[in-house]
C-alpha cells in the first residue's frame, strides 16, 4: 500500500484557486481571502499567467495605521515568483520544497497548465497521515516558544513580534488568567476592515481552544478539524500556555515519522535482496543508501565490506572493520551458548535472526535487530555471510514505555490495579514466608464528583495528580501507592509492627488530602475516607484484603467521611445482610410483596379529603412490614428503584381509575419520583403510557420530586420536567426548605406546588424559628403563584396556624396515617355519606 506521503500532490491539491488582478487593492484582496477562507491569493496578469502570490504572512507587513498601505495595488506587495511544482511530485517532496523555500503555498502544474494550489493545510488534512500523527504527542514535538502579550498591549506590538519572530500566531493573556489568540488570519481580517488601532483584548479570538501537552498529534488534528481552526493552544500541567501549534509544526512531525516508515521499507527491501543470494551486485545502491547496517564476510567470518550505515551505527570506519570479525562489536552481554546456537542455525538452516546487544566504538551499548544469511554456491559451500542490522534501541525503549503504561495509571504515573494486585500478592507471599504484618489502606475521595461537575474534568485531573504526589510524599520507603480507578487510591504499608503506626500514617494522609488546594485557579477543599485491612488478621489472600479494606472504607463514609476505619468482622456481616436485603427486594417485586398505601391530603379548614400521596410498603413473608427507610436506599443504589417506581406508578393509576369510576375521587394522587427515574429511565414515555392505559386525564396524577433532584440543573432534570409539564402532569416539590432553596432557580422550574417539610411543621406551634420559616415558605409560594401542602400535621394548633397563614392543604396523623388501598377507599366512601 502506498504511503500517504508518497502519493502525488495532484490528489490533494485544491483546484479552486482564489485569484485577483495585479491592480486589485490590498484591502480588497484581504476581504476576498476572508470571505473564501483562503490563506493566500494568486495574482494573474491579463495573459492568465501567475505573476505573484499574497499570503497571510505578507499581511503582517501592512501598516494598519496607514490607510495608504491598505490601498496599494497588490502587485507592489506580492511575493514573486510563485513556486510551481509538477503534479506528480510526492507529498513528502512537497514538504521538503516548503521547508527549503520557506513557503506555505505552491501552484501545481500539469502539461504546462496550472491545475491547482497545494498548501500546508492540504498536507496536514491528507487522508492516511493518521498513522504518523498517532505516534507522537504534543510534548514530543519541536515548536517555537510561545509569545504571550497582555490584552492591554497594542496591535502594533503584536504585529512587530509576529514579523520579527516569524510567528503565525501569538497568545493574549487577560487579567483573569484566561487566554486568547491572534493569528495571521486575524491580521488579514484587520487589513480587510481597516481596523488598525485597538488593544489586543478587543480583537483577538477568545476563549482560545486548547489541549494538554499529553495529547497526541492525531487528537490535536481532530480538534482542529472539529473547530475549523488552524492553530491550537497547548497547555502544560499548571494550565499555562506552553505552545501554539499550527500546520507547520504538524508537518515537521509527519515528515519525521514518514522517514521512520521509509527506513522500515528499506529494511524489508534489503532482506529481500539478501535472500536472492546471487544478486548482491544489483544491491549496490541500496547497500550504500539504506539506513540499516550491512556487513559482508567471507566464509570464515572475516569482514569484506560494510556500508555507510554500519559506520553511522557502530562508529567504526570501513577501514577499521575490514579484515576483522564482527566480534569487534561484542558487548559481553550474550553468553557463549547464545553464539553456539547462532552458528548452529547458520550451519543447519543458512540463516538466523534475533536481537543482540552490541557495543559502539565509543563504548555505549545499543540493541540491534540482526539478520544473518549464508550465501552458498552450487555445491552448498558457504561463500559469504551477509548480516543486516538496525538500531532498535529507541524501539526497545518505546516497548518499555508501553509496558510501563500497561501497568501504570496514565494520569498520575502510579501503579494501576493490575500492577497493584501483583504487588499485593507478592506482599502476601513475603509476609507469610517471613512471618510479617502489613497494612492495606483503601482511599476514596469525598466530594470529588462535585469538583468534576463544577470545575470540569481538567480541574479534577489536576486534583488527582496533586493527591497522588502527596500520597507518594507521605508514604514511607518500600511502600506502594497505586490508583485503582477514578478517585480510588491504595497504599500498601509493609513491615508493620503496631496498629498505631498504621493509624498515624492514615491520619497523615487525611491531613494532607484535606489541605486547601487550588485547581483551575479555584480554591477547593476535599477530604477522603480510608478503610484499612491488616495481614494476616483481616485476610490471608490478596483479594480478601482488598475487599475488606473497601468494606472498611464504606464504613468510614457512613460515619461522616474524612476519617479512617479499621476492618472488623461485623462489617462483613452487615454487608452480607445488605446483600440479602437486596436479593429479597428483587424477589419482592417478582412475588407481589410490595404494596401501595395512601395518606390522605385534606382541606385544612374542613378536613375533607381532596387527594392523597401514594407511599410504598414492603410486606416481607417472614419479617412483616419493613420500613421504607431500610429498603428504599438499597433500591436506589442497586437501580431497582426504576422498576419499582414504574410498578408504583402503574398500581396508583389503576387505583385512581377504580376510584374515579366509583365516583369516590376527583382530586389528584401524588406519586414520588426518584432522581434515578428522572435521569436514567424514560419517565416521560412511561407516564404517557400509564395515562393512556388507564384512560386517565393528566390532571388526575401528581408527581412529587425532591428539592435537591429538581435543582440538579447539569443532569438534564429541567428538560425532563418541562416534558412532563407538556403532558399536563401536575408537578410539585417535596420536602421544600431542606435542600438548596434557590429561589431564582425555583422560578424557572415548571412546578405548580410545594410541600412544606414536616421538620418545620412539627414544632411551629412552640418554636418561633419554625413558625417564621413556615410563614416565609407560604409567602414565597403565594408570590410565585404556587399551591402549598403541609406534611406532618399532627396537632390542631398546627392546623389553625397554617390556615391563618394561608396554607389550605395538608396531610398528617391529625387526619390519617398512611393506610392500605382498601382502607383509603373506605375513608373516601365514609366522606360520601
From TrEMBL:
Record's keyword annotation contains Ribonucleoprotein: no
Domain EAL: 578-832
SMART domains reported in the protein's UniProt record: CBS, EAL, GGDEF, PAC, PAS
Regions annotated as coiled coil: none
GGDEF domain residues: 436-569
Residue stretches making up the PAC domain: 352-404
CDD domains named in the record: EAL (cd01948), GGDEF (cd01949), PAS (cd00130)
InterPro entries: Biofilm_reg_signaling, CBS_dom, CBS_dom_sf, EAL_dom, EAL_sf, GGDEF_dom, Nucleotide_cyclase, PAC
Annotated GO MF terms: cyclic-guanylate-specific phosphodiesterase activity
Domain PAS, chain residue ranges per copy: 285-325
PROSITE patterns for the chain: CBS, EAL, GGDEF, PAC, PAS
Keyword Cell cycle in annotation: no
Catalytic activity: 3',3'-c-di-GMP + H2O = 5'-phosphoguanylyl(3'->5')guanosine + H(+)
Pfam family, one: CBS
A Gene Ontology biological process term: cellular response to nitric oxide
Start and end residues of each CBS domain: 13-69, 78-133, 204-262
The protein's name: Diguanylate cyclase
Taxonomic lineage of the native organism: Bacteria, Pseudomonadati, Pseudomonadota, Betaproteobacteria, Neisseriales
Amino acid at each position: 500500500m502506498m504511503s500517504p506521503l508518497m502519493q502525488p500532490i495532484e490528489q490533494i491539491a485544491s483546484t479552486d484557486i482564489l485569484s485577483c488582478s495585479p491592480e486589485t487593492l490590498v484591502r480588497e484582496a484581504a476581504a476576498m481571502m476572508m470571505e473564501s477562507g483562503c490563506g493566500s491569493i494568486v495574482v494573474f496578469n491579463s495573459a492568465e499567467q501567475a505573476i505573484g502570490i499574497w499570503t497571510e504572512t505578507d499581511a503582517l507587513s501592512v501598516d494598519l495605521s496607514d490607510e495608504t498601505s491598505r490601498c496599494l495595488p497588490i502587485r507592489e506587495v506580492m511575493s514573486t515568483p510563485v513556486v510551481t511544482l509538477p503534479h506528480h511530485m510526492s507529498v513528502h517532496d512537497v514538504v521538503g520544497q516548503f521547508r527549503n523555500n520557506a513557503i506555505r503555498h505552491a501552484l501545481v502544474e500539469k502539461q504546462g497548465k496550472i491545475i491547482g494550489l497545494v498548501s500546508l493545510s492540504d498536507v496536514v488534512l491528507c487522508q492516511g497521515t493518521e498513522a504518523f500523527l498517532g505516534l507522537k504527542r504534543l510534548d514530543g514535538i519541536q515548536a517555537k516558544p510561545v509569545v504571550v502579550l497582555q490584552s492591554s498591549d497594542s496591535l502594533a506590538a503584536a504585529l512587530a513580534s509576529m514579523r520579527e519572530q516569524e510567528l503565525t500566531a501569538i497568545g493574549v493573556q487577560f487579567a483573569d488568567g484566561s487566554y486568547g489568540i491572534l493569528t495571521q488570519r486575524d491580521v488579514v481580517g484587520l487589513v480587510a476592515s481597516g481596523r488598525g488601532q485597538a488593544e489586543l483584548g478587543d480583537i483577538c479570538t477568545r476563549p482560545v481552544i486548547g489541549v494538554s501537552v499529553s495529547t497526541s498529534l492525531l487528537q490535536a488534528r481532530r480538534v482542529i478539524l472539529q473547530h475549523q481552526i488552524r492553530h491550537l493552544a497547548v497547555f502544560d500541567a499548571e494550565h499555562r500556555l506552553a505552545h501554539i501549534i499550527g500546520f507547520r509544526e504538524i508537518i515537521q512531525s509527519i515528515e519525521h515519522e514518514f522517514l521512520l516508515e521509509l527506513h522500515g521499507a528499506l529494511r524489508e527491501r534489503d532482506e529481500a535482496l539478501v535472500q536472492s543470494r546471487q544478486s548482491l551486485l544489483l544491491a549496490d545502491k541500496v547497500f550504500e543508501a539504506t539506513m540499516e547496517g550491512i556487513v559482508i564476510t567471507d566464509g570464515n567470518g572475516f569482514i569484506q565490506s560494510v556500508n555507510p550505515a554500519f559506520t553511522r551505527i557502530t562508529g567504526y570506519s570501513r577501514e577499521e572493520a575490514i579484515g576483522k570479525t564482527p566480534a569487534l562489536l561484542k558487548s559481553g552481554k550474550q553468553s557463549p551458548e547464545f553464539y553456539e546456537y547462532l552458528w548452529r542455525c547458520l550451519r543447519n538452516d543458512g540463516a538466523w535472526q534475533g536481537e543482540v546487544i552490541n557495543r559502539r566504538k565509543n563504548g555505549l551499548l545499543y540493541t540491534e535487530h540482526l539478520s544473518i544469511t549464508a550465501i552458498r554456491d552450487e555445491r552448498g559451500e558457504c561463500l559469504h555471510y551477509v548480516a543486516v542490522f538496525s538500531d532498535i534501541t529507541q524501539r526497545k525503549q518505546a516497548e518499555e514505555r508501553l509496558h510501563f503504561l500497561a501497568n501504570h495509571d496514565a494520569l498520575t504515573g502510579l501503579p494501576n490495579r493490575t500492577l497493584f494486585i501483583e504487588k499485593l500478592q507478592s506482599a502476601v507471599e513475603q509476609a507469610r514466608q517471613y512471618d510479617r504484618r502489613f497494612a492495606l489502606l483503601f482511599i476514596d475521595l469525598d466530594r470529588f464528583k462535585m469538583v468534576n461537575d463544577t470545575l470540569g474534568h481538567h480541574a479534577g485531573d489536576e486534583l488527582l495528580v496533586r493527591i497522588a504526589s502527596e500520597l507518594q510524599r507521605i508514604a514511607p520507603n518500600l511502600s506502594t501507592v497505586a490508583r485503582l480507578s477514578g478517585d480510588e487510591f491504595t497504599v500498601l504499608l509493609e513491615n508493620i509492627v503496631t496498629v498505631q503506626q498504621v493509624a498515624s500514617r492514615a491520619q497523615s494522609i487525611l491531613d494532607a488530602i484535606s489541605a486547601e488546594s487550588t485547581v483551575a485557579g479555584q480554591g477547593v477543599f476535599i477530604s477522603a475516607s480510608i478503610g484499612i485491612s491488616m495481614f494476616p488478621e483481616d485476610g490471608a489472600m490478596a483479594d480478601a484484603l482488598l475487599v475488606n479494606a473497601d468494606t472498611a472504607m464504606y464504613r468510614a463514609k457512613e460515619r461522616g467521611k474524612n476519617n479512617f476505619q479499621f476492618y472488623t468482622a461485623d462489617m462483613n456481616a452487615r454487608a452480607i445482610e445488605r446483600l440479602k436485603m437486596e436479593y429479597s427486594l428483587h424477589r419482592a417485586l417478582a412475588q407481589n410483596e410490595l404494596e401501595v398505601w395512601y395518606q390522605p391530603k385534606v382541606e385544612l379548614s374542613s378536613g375533607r379529603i381532596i387527594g392523597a400521596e401514594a407511599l410504598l410498603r414492603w410486606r416481607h413473608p417472614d419479617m412483616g412490614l419493613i420500613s421504607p427507610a431500610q429498603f428504599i436506599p438499597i433500591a436506589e443504589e442497586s437501580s431497582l428503584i426504576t422498576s419499582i417506581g414504574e410498578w408504583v406508578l402503574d398500581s396508583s393509576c389503576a387505583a385512581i381509575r377504580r376510584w374515579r369510576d366509583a365516583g369516590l375521587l376527583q382530586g389528584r394522587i401524588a406519586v414520588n419520583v426518584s432522581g434515578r427515574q428522572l435521569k436514567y429511565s424514560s419517565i416521560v414515555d412511561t407516564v404517557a403510557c400509564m395515562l393512556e392505559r388507564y384512560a386517565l386525564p393528566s390532571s388526575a396524577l401528581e408527581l412529587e420530586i425532591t428539592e435537591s433532584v429538581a435543582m440538579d440543573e447539569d443532569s438534564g432534570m429541567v428538560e425532563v420536567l418541562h416534558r412532563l409539564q407538556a403532558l399536563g402532569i401536575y408537578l410539585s416539590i417535596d420536602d421544600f426548605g431542606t435542600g438548596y432553596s434557590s429561589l431564582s432557580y425555583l422560578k424557572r422550574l415548571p412546578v405548580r406546588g410545594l410541600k412544606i417539610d414536616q421538620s418545620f411543621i412539627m414544632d411551629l406551634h412552640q418554636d418561633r424559628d419554625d413558625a417564621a420559616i413556615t410563614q416565609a415558605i407560604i409567602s414565597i409560594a403565594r408570590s410565585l403563584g404556587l399551591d402549598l401542602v403541609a406534611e406532618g400535621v399532627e396537632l390542631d394548633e398546627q392546623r389553625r396556624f397554617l390556615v391563618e397563614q394561608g396554607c389550605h392543604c395538608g396531610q398528617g396523623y391529625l387526619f390519617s396515617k398512611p393506610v392500605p388501598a382498601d382502607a383509603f377507599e373506605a375513608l373516601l366512601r365514609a366522606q360520601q355519606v
